[in-house]
Structure prediction request, 399 residues.
Amino acid sequence: MHYSDRIQALKISPIRRLIPYADEAVAKGKKVIRLNIGQPDIKTPEEYFDAIKTFHPVTVTYQVAQGILPLREAISNYYKAMNVPYEPDEIFITAGGTEALQFAVDILCDAGDEILVPEPFYANYNTVAKLSFVNLLPIPTKAETGFHLPSEKEIEALITPKTRAFWISHPCNPTGTMYTHDEIRMLCRLAKKHDIFIIADEVYREFTYDHGAEGFMSFAEVEDTRDRVIMVDSVSKRFSACGIRIGCIAIKNKEFLTQLMKLAQGRLCVSAVEQVGAAALYKTPKSYLDDVNKEYKMRRDVLYNGLKSIPGIVCHEPKGAFYSMVKLPIDSSEKFVIWMLQNFDINGETTMAAPGNGFYADPNKGLDEMRIAYVLKKEDLERALNILKQAIAAYPGHK
Prediction:
């Protein structure tokens, strides 16, 4: 049988590929503390459930391809409260943030074109790019410098005639880095100078900590490049609603929106009931997001302080999202996680995280790194950190 080159070029998700080992460990009686996936355990707001309970049309019809107006109006008001003036007609509803990313890449790129992305980067960017035969070219960053961007000169040297966009997760999944205002303005300057776009993946906007004097800055706040900033967003993390699969693209560029309509119409529409529920989520009181932010900041502190106590680990304090990318004194994080699941436990418990090489364009990079998602309650994190500390000391591949 024949399978396409496109599908054979894809890799199993690094976030999920070790799940069979975890399932095997559970079948043998172990408890696995799972820090591999960004699935929040925070309660989804009741506004969502109240809305879908009352959704009962005579016929569930196709919705408009762009997305229902009440949801686009709700998102528009959300952005305007942040001083980002997106109008409802500049917003398209998508089936999660992932479809928004795929649409953006398909609109901008032909086969063989290039997108520059700070590395390490969210693993699904690889999947989206490969499906469109697009080359992701890394902007190298280092754990030792908190995964911040290199100089403007170094980044500009990476731009070629085939470069179509910068692709930025801000705050960053997997590193937890929140880019500075200067870094954001630098990329916007380069995008304008070289006539390329910025795909701004800001789904973790609410999860920023230790703002200091600057605070979080959206790419859409830079006025003279708003026509080339493709804002990608989602309700998944913001409202702890990953399974709803509602995202959006927002952009102040009429020509781009015209092209976007072709793709939106091609996939007909997004789920009607989920759009109704998502619109209600934007009525969630601000106190909900404030409380969630405090909870994740506390979890961040627990994780970071615990990691600092482990000899040989290189890590920085995450300033956003709910991930930390750490460098371990081991030969291979994938071998290490498998070894923990198969051979190591404390009082019947072990833990797992996502191997670091899955967040690089070259799978031979990041072999000694690991992404840890601090999405579990304080007590689980503390036990996981104790397991991790003792496992590193006992691991045969310890350096």
User: Anything to note?
Assistant: The chain has a mean pLDDT of 94.
